[in-house]
């Protein structure tokens, strides 16, 4: 019996009124939010298992746009049903087989092309949460067009080809995440030290559980708030440093 890996209750969330627009890019739907001024810098946000329409992820898109980036969250599930809080964890492995975070290359290329050709983007970063964190780790090994990446609590898969990152990548973890042990985090650190030739950073936030960094302000517990805000600031600072 697998415990619910997301310790936040997705059912009791406050409503969020989005600032951006939904667009169709080739075969993908996407949510886009632009800053108030014109820029050639963009950020792709990769959603978690709850998909591209989940309010928390749209909040993050709007937040990044507010920092001066054309920000886009495409539907990496390509119209298939995201995981919901009503689904049963016994079915999760099967669902994951059809939603592999390592199989996002084609979608990433479609979005990169759109950002370059339709939005005039010259520098493009990527941030991803949970499922999306795994996708970011994968893409930072494969796609040199992505100038910088932030992977937030993506489960660490150990294999020799997981460490030769192409561009600067920042890994964010919660200390109390019961889907990712601190042993896995230390392993990642050791292997990156050995193989990685570009700037990277790993940071563990005290007392935080899986999914902590995308909570909207009104959904935060007071004791977690400083760590959530710090993680978001760190994420934005990393992107600002390299994108």
Automatic annotation (TrEMBL):
InterPro entries: AB_hydrolase_fold, CMBL, Dienelactn_hydro. One of its GO terms (cellular component) is cytosol. Its main location: cytoplasm. GO terms for molecular function: hydrolase activity. Residues 29-241 form the Dienelactone hydrolase domain. It is found in: Cytoplasm, Cytosol. Pfam families: DLH (PF01738). Belongs to the dienelactone hydrolase family. This is Carboxymethylenebutenolidase homolog. It comes from Oriolus oriolus (Eurasian golden oriole). The gene is Cmbl_0.
